[in-house]
């Protein structure tokens, strides 16, 4: 067969194939593009049309462009509508539950703030001590010995209401079986002006060491400076303004107080001039430097100062405990200065100034404090004569913890062990787990009463100056419990008429088991 015939046959087959494809496409379009295909008996709104194959006549409805509403319903559409209804119902329920929960939370918060949020706590200190005295004064040597006692037994109930009202009631049970109230006050804080208010029987804003809790001190007893709290500082009836609740790096406090009253007294009344037995005391503190280490320990530098002016009712000096007694850092032992108690029963007025500073660098803590008191005592011919006291202390925590800081008032806090020796396991049973925290400390404290000496009123008392060195070892079993071991050596030189040129000394060891709950 010639090539011409072959080409002719190929072209003819191609033409037939193309025409078949076109017809098939139009036929499919005819059936897909219409809504309904009707026979010739249909109503007049249909128009005639032939099928692509030409084997029948059909009439196709001329409808508008189809919409989703005109589309036939499928089973999937019903399921989707039901799911959307369930989702909306669930969302409505969640919104109602959230509204109910928010309302309940607001009611609980209001109830919590309006109801007393009271916490009950307590402390137990049990001490044992032994010591001996030496020197030229027999009364000092005879006052040293051995013994045990519950140093402090206290229960405290404190709390707040409305996030604006505070209260504190602390009762102490004495070793002899009696009890007294140490703290008894109410106060306001979070006021719009940013100033807090306190009234009752509480510590005056005086001295870093005096404001610190006995629970947190590095030694069993506070320094010689604390022995002056009966003439300046300590707990007295009064009213005070402060910013202690919202203090950051600066705090202040100032108030008017009773000039003298023993800490177990709550009633203070004078029949003489209303300005007798009244005092003004103020304190400021500042943190010039504060930084936190990557392990959570802090480095800070603190400075603080206090001032007080006091006018005394001399007729009630003995009943109000206007006394000084300097002991060798152990409460059970006798006194190095002042004897059992030096009564300043003719002191008319006093001006006092105190300065303190502290540096905490990780586990290292260094403290220094000095106070001066200028006395006017007409009965003893004392006119603006000065007595003083102070201390320097260095402590180091061997296990790496750091002392905390109380911004309200400006003083050092306690130590919380990173790995307590006794802790609670998951079953609620105590177990031994770590070394606890170990701390060593050294303190040198001093007091100078030389200017109290006169040929008259205080001539036969133990008047002079003293110096006491104390080293301590503390083992914190956990944040609530610790064992303390202290050794002190104190010495005194006297200038009073009866003991002029004489001296005395005392060597004392003490231990304490302390529990705070």
Structural account:
- With 517 residues, the chain is of the alpha+beta class.
- Among the domains are: 3-61; 124-152 and 213-233 and 271-516, Porin (Beta Barrel).
- The chain is built from 4 helices and 25 strands.
- The strands form 5 sheets. A 16-stranded antiparallel β-barrel has the order 4-5-6-7-8-9-10-11-12-15-16-17-22-23-24-25. Strands 1-3-2 form a 3-stranded antiparallel sheet, with no helix packed on it.
- The longest helix is centred in the N-terminal third of the chain and has 40 residues, at 75-114.
- The chain starts with a helix and ends with a strand.
Report the structural category: alpha+beta
Q: What is the string of SSEs from the N terminus onward?
A: HEEEHEHEEEEHEEEEEEEEEEEEEEEEE
- What portion of the residues fall into strands of 2 or more residues? over 45%
Low-pLDDT stretches are 21-63
């Amino acid at each position: 067969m010639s090539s011409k015939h072959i080409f002719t046959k190929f072209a003819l087959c191609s033409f037939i194939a193309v025409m078949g494809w076109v017809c098939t496409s139009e036929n499919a379009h005819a059936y897909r593009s219409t809504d309904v295909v009707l026979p010739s008996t249909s109503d007049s709104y249909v128009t005639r049309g032939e099928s692509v194959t030409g084997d029948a006549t059909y009439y196709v409805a001329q409808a508008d462009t189809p919409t989703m509403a005109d589309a036939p319903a499928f089973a999937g559409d019903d399921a989707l509508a039901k799911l959307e209804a369930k989702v909306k119902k669930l969302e409505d329920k969640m919104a109602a539950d959230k509204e109910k929960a928010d309302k309940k939370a607001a009611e609980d918060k209001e109830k919590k703030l309006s109801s007393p949020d009271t916490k009950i706590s307590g402390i137990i200190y049990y001490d044992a001590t032994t010591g001996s005295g030496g020197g030229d004064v027999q009364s000092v040597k005879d006052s040293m010995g051995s013994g045990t006692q519950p140093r402090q037994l206290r229960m405290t109930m404190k709390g707040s209401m409305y996030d604006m009202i505070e209260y504190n009631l602390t009762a102490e049970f004495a070793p002899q079986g009696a009890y007294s109230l140490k703290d008894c006050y109410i106060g306001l804080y979070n006021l719009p002006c940013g100033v807090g208010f306190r009234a009752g029987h509480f510590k005056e804003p005086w001295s870093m060491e005096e404001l610190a809790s006995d629970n947190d001190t590095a030694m069993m007893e506070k320094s010689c400076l604390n022995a002056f709290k009966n003439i300046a500082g300590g707990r007295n009836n009064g009213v005070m303004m402060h910013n202690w609740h919202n203090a950051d790096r600066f705090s202040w406090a100032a108030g008017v107080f009773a000039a003298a009253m023993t800490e177990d007294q709550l009633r203070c009344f004078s029949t003489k001039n209303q300005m007798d037995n009244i005092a003004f005391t103020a304190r400021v503190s500042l943190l010039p430097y504060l930084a936190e280490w990557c392990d959570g320990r802090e480095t800070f530098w603190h400075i603080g100062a206090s001032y007080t002016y006091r006018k005394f009712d001399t007729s009630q000096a003995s009943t109000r405990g206007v006394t000084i007694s300097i002991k060798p850092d152990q409460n059970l032992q006798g006194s190095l200065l002042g004897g059992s108690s030096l009564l300043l029963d003719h002191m008319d007025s006093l001006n006092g100034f105190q300065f303190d500073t502290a540096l905490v660098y990780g586990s290292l803590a260094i403290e220094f404090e000095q106070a001066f008191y200028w006395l006017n005592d007409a009965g003893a011919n004392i006119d603006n004569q000065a007595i003083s006291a102070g201390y320097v202390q260095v402590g180091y925590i061997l296990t790496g913890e750091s002392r905390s800081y109380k911004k309200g008032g400006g003083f050092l806090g306690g130590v919380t062990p990173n790995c307590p020796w006794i802790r609670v396991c998951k079953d609620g049973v105590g177990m031994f787990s770590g070394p606890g925290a170990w701390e060593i400390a050294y303190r040198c404290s001093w007091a100078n009463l030389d200017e109290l000496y006169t040929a008259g009123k205080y001539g036969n008392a133990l008047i002079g100056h003293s110096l006491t060195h104390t080293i301590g070892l503390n083992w914190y079993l956990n944040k609530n419990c610790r064992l303390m071991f202290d050794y002190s050596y104190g010495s005194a030189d006297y200038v009073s008429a009866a003991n002029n040129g004489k001296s005395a000394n005392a060597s004392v060891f003490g231990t304490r088991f302390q529990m705070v709950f």
